[in-house]
């Protein structure tokens, strides 16, 4: 093995054969040697620096080929995976050794044997998980050690016993677990004046995340917390569709956060053990790199009995956790759901032929976001559109069953914008621009095609109405919006009413405005918009008991004409209305007025003319006037 990998280096890097003058024996000519000569006590000193950076080395250099006067050896950015006992033996003058950014996973005991003068060692960004004190034999002069960027999450007690001159230590990793197992290091560093670099910060447990290790207090390093796993994965993680007779291995990997961690398998809640006659083999749990546990279940010769939920369970003294996936066993003659096309307000979905028992997914149709200004000033978050999907289940019998498009944005830009508006918090600051915007949107109400448009507007109108007490001017917007909504096509309104009582709720909002408008000093209201005329006079109960009359007038033309200026709806005098009785008077109603009760309740009685229209929300395309006289 050793000869073989060395051979690779030789073959791969054999160059022109011209030896570097400073390194006569070095056969790897992509390495650079430089030498400094200095006179010290009349003896000539040569200080050689060897740099073999980023030259695809698979192995360390044979020490006998490197001048024994080398003081700095730089092997960074290569593909070295193993440091053997004595890998650098003979380089007794070496002071700096840089091995960062390699693939080192194994460091044998005695790897740095003979490096008696070594002062700096950089092992950062490798794959070292197992560390032992014997790794550092002979490094009695080492003052700076960088172990950052490896895969360990903890360091074993007494690891640095041989490093008697150590002054600075880096050991930050992506899985560094600051718990009771590192308490010794904190105490050892303090009593030996070793500085733990400030880039060494905790990653786990979550409550210590980002804290510098050296600043922790001893009591913070505890092992009683809830179980946290730096790494825990089940492969495959997604549901698997397998045919009878197939073979499927399941592999589970979990961090070995402490020796109490164990892996188990469960199938539909029952612990799994090897069952040769059923073709289920549970392999022995293995510890890799001192920090990962792996366990494998091999399902050979699958039959329907293995269908269901498979779970990898971790138990430990700190708690348990699990990951699961589903196996669906397909009969070879399984039925299919046919291809199907669904068009709805979320777009056009073409469902492919799908096997029975399967949940099919389709990405939402790509939507280009409208540029509607947001009253809140906040832009929609584009990243939230990522990965949105619709799903549909094909049942066991091969029929399309439940489906869900809720994650998808509305296909119509108007619907999408209205939907976004419903997501913002309306307060007195943004209510006025929102009201304005809604008046503008609903001016196109005749072209609304989606029930959701009506429902969203209803929702927004209700929320605006709640603010009318604080901002009176909102009343005008609401009555304009309600008026505009009467232009929506009748069957859409009808559906919105059925689904969400949308019409009733809008009318209630209009009533509420009238109610509020009549309180306080205000004794008269008159709000006239295209399709709603709201007129009210306050009459003192003490001096009135009689008839109240309402006239509804349809303009002569019976053709639908939603343009506001085509109506007249300001008739106030009864005389004039009587004059108009002819063909245009649609309805004329009088009631006795009960003088008890608040003006507001009387008004709401009168708005019954509107309420009767709830059933189809729009007045019969004519003007409508409510009067209390
Ligand atoms: C270095 O090697 C030379 C021979 O190549 C030897 O004479 C010398 O003693 C060695 N020096 C050390 C410090 O090992
Ligand atoms: C080794 O080489 C790399 C890349 O050129 C450089 O970043 C690093 O500082 C060198 N190491 C030493 C100890 O000089
Ligand atoms: C390393 O190798 C040397 C020489 O072969 C041997 O004496 C020593 O015991 C080995 N060290 C370890 C820790 O295996
Ligand atoms: C130690 O290694 C880490 C990871 O490569 C690096 O971020 C850090 O700067 C190194 N520290 C020193 C002092 O070289
Ligand atoms: C960490 O230490 C370095 C020098 O060792 C210093 O430049 C840097 O400011 C320190 N960072 C923090 C956050 O203390
Ligand atoms: C963890 O699992 C073991 C074995 O299944 C069980 O005895 C123990 O009660 C569980 N602990 C917790 C905290 O759920
Ligand atoms: C209204 O909401 C916006 C953003 O949500 C906020 O900036 C503003 O201060 C709020 N105004 C009031 C009066 O609460
Ligand atoms: C008037 O209303 C009150 C309560 O609203 C009721 O008790 C009374 O019977 C009503 N009178 C008439 C004449 O309807
Ligand atoms: C108003 O309408 C409600 C139900 O729509 C009805 O019960 C009530 O009698 C009506 N009132 C008047 C004054 O028409």
UniProtKB/TrEMBL annotation:
Domain Ig-like span(s) in chain numbering: 230-328
Membrane topology according to the record: Multi-pass membrane protein
Record-level GO BP terms: cell surface receptor signaling pathway
Chief location category: membrane
UniProt key word Repeat: yes
GO terms assigned for molecular function: G protein-coupled receptor activity
Bias (Polar residues) ranges: 596-611
Compartmental location: Membrane
Biased composition (Basic and acidic residues): 566-575
Chain intervals for the UniProt region annotation (Disordered): 555-575, 596-629
UniProt source species: Lates japonicus (Japanese lates)
Keywords: Disulfide bond, G-protein coupled receptor, Immunoglobulin domain, Leucine-rich repeat, Membrane, Receptor, Repeat, Signal, Transducer, Transmembrane, Transmembrane helix
Residues covered by the G-protein coupled receptors family 2 profile domain: 311-412
Entry similarity comment: Belongs to the G-protein coupled receptor 2 family. Adhesion G-protein coupled receptor (ADGR) subfamily.
Signal peptide location: 1-19
Pfam family, one: LRR_8
Name of the protein: Adhesion G protein-coupled receptor A1
One Gene Ontology CC term in the entry: plasma membrane
């Amino acid at each position: 093995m050793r000869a073989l990998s060395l051979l690779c280096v030789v073959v791969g890097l054999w160059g022109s054969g011209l030896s570097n003058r400073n390194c006569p024996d070095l056969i790897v000519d992509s390495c650079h040697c430089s030498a400094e000569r200095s006179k010290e006590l009349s003896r000539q000193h040569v200080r050689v620096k060897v740099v073999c950076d980023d030259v695809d080395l698979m192995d360390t250099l044979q020490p006998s080929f490197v001048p024994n006067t080398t003081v700095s050896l730089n092997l960074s950015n290569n593909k070295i995976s193993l440091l053997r006992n004595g890998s650098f033996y003979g380089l007794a003058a070496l002071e700096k050794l840089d091995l960062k950014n390699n693939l080192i996973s194994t460091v044998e005991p005695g790897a740095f044997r003979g490096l008696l003068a070594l002062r700096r060692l950089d092992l950062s960004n490798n794959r070292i998980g197992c560390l032992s004190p014997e790794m550092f034999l002979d490094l009695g002069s080492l003052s700076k050690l960088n172990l950052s960027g490896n895969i360990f999450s903890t360091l074993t007690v007494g690891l640095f016993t041989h490093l008697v001159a150590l002054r600075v230590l880096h050991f930050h990793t992506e899985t560094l677990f600051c718990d009771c197992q590192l308490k010794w290091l904190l105490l050892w560093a303090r009593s030996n004046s070793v500085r733990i670099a400030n880039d060494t910060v905790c990653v786990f447990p979550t409550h210590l995340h980002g804290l510098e290790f050296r600043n922790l207090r001893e009591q913070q390093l505890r092992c009683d917390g809830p179980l946290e796993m730096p790494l825990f994965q089940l492969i495959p993680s997604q549901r698997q569709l397998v045919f009878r007779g197939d073979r499927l291995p399941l592999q589970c990997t979990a961090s070995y956060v402490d020796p109490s961690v164990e892996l188990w398998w469960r199938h539909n809640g029952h612990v799994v053990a090897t069952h040769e006659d059923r073709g289920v083999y549970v392999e022995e749990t293995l510890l890799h790199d001192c920090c990962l546990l792996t366990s494998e279940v091999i399902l050979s010769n699958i039959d329907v009995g293995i269908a269901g939920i498979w779970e990898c369970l971790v138990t430990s003294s700190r708690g348990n956790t699990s990951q699961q996936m589903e196996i669906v066993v397909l009969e070879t003659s399984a039925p299919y759901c046919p291809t199907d096309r669904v068009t709805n307000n979320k777009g056009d979905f073409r469902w492919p032929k799908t096997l029975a028992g399967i949940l099919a997914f389709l990405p939402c149709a790509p939507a280009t976001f409208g540029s509607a200004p947001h009253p809140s000033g906040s832009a929609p978050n584009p990243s939230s559109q990522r990965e949105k999907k619709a799903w549909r289940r094909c049942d066991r019998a091969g029929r399309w069953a439940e489906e869900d498009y809720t994650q998808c944005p509305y296909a119509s830009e108007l619907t999408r914008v209205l939907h976004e508006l419903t997501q913002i918090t309306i307060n007195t600051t943004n209510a006025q621009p929102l009201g304005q915007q809604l008046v503008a949107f609903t001016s196109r109400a005749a072209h609304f095609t989606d029930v959701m448009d009506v429902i969203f507007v209803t929702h927004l109108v209700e929320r605006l109405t709640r603010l009318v007490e604080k901002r009176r001017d909102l009343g005008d917007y609401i009555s304009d919006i309600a008026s505009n909504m009467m232009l929506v096509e009748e069957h859409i309104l009808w559906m919105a009413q059925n689904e969400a009582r949308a019409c009733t709720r809008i009318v209630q909002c209009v009533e509420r405005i009238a109610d509020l408008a009549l309180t306080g000093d205000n004794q008269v209201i008159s709000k006239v918009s295209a399709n709603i005329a709201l007129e009210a006079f306050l009459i003192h109960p003490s001096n009135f008991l009689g008839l109240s009359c309402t006239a509804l007038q349809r303009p002569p033309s019976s053709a639908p004409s939603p343009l506001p200026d085509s109506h007249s709806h300001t008739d106030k005098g009864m005389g004039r209305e009587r004059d108009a009785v002819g063909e245009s008077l649609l309805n004329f109603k009088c009631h006795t007025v009960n003088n008890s009760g608040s003006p507001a309740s009387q008004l709401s009685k009168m708005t019954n003319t509107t309420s009767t229209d709830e059933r189809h929300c729009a007045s019969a395309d004519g003007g409508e006037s409510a009067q209390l006289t």
